[in-house]
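1st attempt posting a full record on here, be nice pls
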Amino acid sequence: MIFKDLKKRVTLEATIQQTKLFEILQNKPFWIWNIEEHKQEDIKTNGDCCFNHIIGLPTKEGVEKPLFDYEQIIFDTLVTQSGNNLLSNKKHL
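the predicted structure (as tokens):
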């Protein structure tokens, strides 16, 4: 096997992994802000309840942290209820 063949194989494997991850993330919310609803969805989906739990929660000093209230304010400011990106409307934060 030459380097060119190895590069093609690695690229193909990475593409397959990206496709699988995209399929898992498709139609998942970024975060479920209601705590009870989040717990129920976590149990129902075996931990694949939202984007952040699938890719991994943010960590601080090795400890996973949930999203905080101020992050919800930022998220809500960036994305409207209909899912439209407010930045495309040239709004400033």
